[in-house]
Structures
1.
Amino acid sequence: MVEFRDVQKFYGKFHALHNINLQIDQGETVVLIGPSGSGKSTLIRTINRLESIQGGKLIVNNQDLSNPKTDSNRLRQDVGMVFQHFNLYKNKNVLENVMLAPRIVSHIPEEENKKQALHLLDMVGVADKAHNMPAQISGGQKQRVAIARSLAMHPKLLLFDEPTSALDPEMIDEVLQVIKKITSASDMTSLIVTHEMGFAKEVANRVIFMDQGQIVEDDDSKSFFERPKTDRAQQFLSKIITH
């Protein structure tokens, strides 16, 4: 599904990702945790080519992202992404936001597209906001719309880049519950960058702990949270507050 082989990423002279070797299989729910600036968001952004790599090889759905001839638009049809700040189209209502990509990219008939969009909005709990503009709904509702929009393209892989970091504390749980529902009800592969440790412990099949651009630990969720192997992971877990 996803394979990193000695992947390197630089921002100028700053070495953002060091020798990343990682394999993610179909159906896994993988959570990336670690201190701010550890490379978590950079790592998942390389998977749909929002960030390029400067060394090594990255294979996603049998497509070689280190090959400049690989079609990024084709790649992104299979790899959805939910951003920190929603990125909804402000001039389109909620329903239109969800319908747009299937209409333009997949050419789904309009009635079928509308039926699918309403179903997805219902699934994430915002069907009653279908005709509202983004400015008329809360941050938590916007993020749920963004999740529905990503699901509308039936991605094989869904990336979440700190999906609750821009939300008020009282809105965090509603978004986390939607993500939990999605990951537990399908065989879609999910990679989630989060600082919500209680959620990570509950939803992840596997936890990857990063620090200073490197993978420090990669283990199943239970083992990582109960018996972290490295001093650095133990130190990190001792300082965080479980949500």
2.
Amino acid sequence: MTCSHVTLAELVASAELHHPDKFFTLGLSTGSTPLGCYQKLIESYKNRDLSFKYVKTFNVDEYVGLRDHPESYHSFMWNNFKHTDIHSENTHILDGNAADLQAERDTFEEKIKVAGGMELFLRGIGPAQHIAFNQLGSSLVSRTRVKMLAMDTILANARFLDGDLAKVPTVALTVGVGAVIDAGEVMTLVTGAHKAFVLYKAIKEGVNHSGPCLHTQCV
């Protein structure tokens, strides 16, 4: 499925037609790839073409120990979606500063289950073929969990932290590949020439464990 803000806007708009106790559930990614899409959605909201009152969101990942930092994924989402009318209690973001990461993982999984799963999962693909922080070899049935970050991920994200590798967390919380597979629909964003090979593999190769992006075959 090809992602565009127009298609996504149509799906979000359909949430207003739902019964008040039935929300449209979105799985959201962070980073530079989906930012333009989010900005277009916010623009549509400001033009009164969209409402997020009947939308629930689940963020797919978060660094451990960086929650209050301006480059945390919590800060990223708050700084973007605070510009809409989504209710704060309907936004779910993993807490990387939780005292008990196992309990945080279990609670997040339960919230997704109670919401009826994610109807639409909006994702990017990393240059190392990762989705959220699911990296090479991630299980097809993996659920929300704590993950050690691969060095290529740490190197790629250092640009957000003054280019200083020492400032980049080495551990993160992430939903699993199973959550992507369970979603009703998946939209994939791929930008930049450096991701051309990843896009090629996702389109041309069959499902295998060589990279999480190939698990879901959604582009």
